[in-house]
Amino acid sequence: MNQMDSLKNKKVLIVGATGGIGAHLVKLIYNSGAQVWIAGRQLAKLNLIAESNQLPASQILEVDLSNSDSVQNFVKKIENEAFDIYINAAGIGIIKPLNQLQVSDMQLSYQVNVLSTFEIVKAILPKMIEVKKGLIINIPGILGKIPMSGAAAYCASKYALVGMMQSIREELKRTEIRITQVYLGGVDSPFWDNIDLRVQRDKMIQAEEAAKSIWFLCQQPSSGVVSEMVLQPFNHQAI
Fold it and tell me: Looking at residues 131-153, what average pLDDT do you find?
């Protein structure tokens, strides 16, 4: 390996592989010579992605991050696998004004965006710690850094995700395990299909371009770490 870390033969786990970003990411990483495990809650979509990338059935994993039993079953399937890279491309975004927000919305946001990640990270880290190497990429999005009206549940869970991962990073300082947070602005993906908010999707970042940026992060310089990356639509730079 010279300046950039190669993906050839790396074992990569992508959770949220059926999303707009995830599906593009699978192809990019697979075409770079990595072994790719894909996970998500829509088995039919996972199978289509696996077929188009020639992935074996053993590397297709169904998981519903909103269901703690499903997450625990998933953890049992992955905890003995030595992954080099874990990419968390899954998440839920509940956008509602405070007077419509329910405790159940907060609980669901935390379950999907924080607790499920906590369980997965706990499952994969021991193997990384054994070899003192690895890479974990989360995508808290720009709302994990700055607030937005109507996004109390979403921001709370994403801020929690960032704080959790920064604390874990402090525990790993004697290793070469890298932790990267990706703060994406608006990405034109199915994420917006069920959100009641007026947005200009034609001016958003294309999902394929967002995937390329994460693919690049998977090949970080061997002498350094990209601790965070911010990518926003050119016409709507929040920070």
Answer: 93
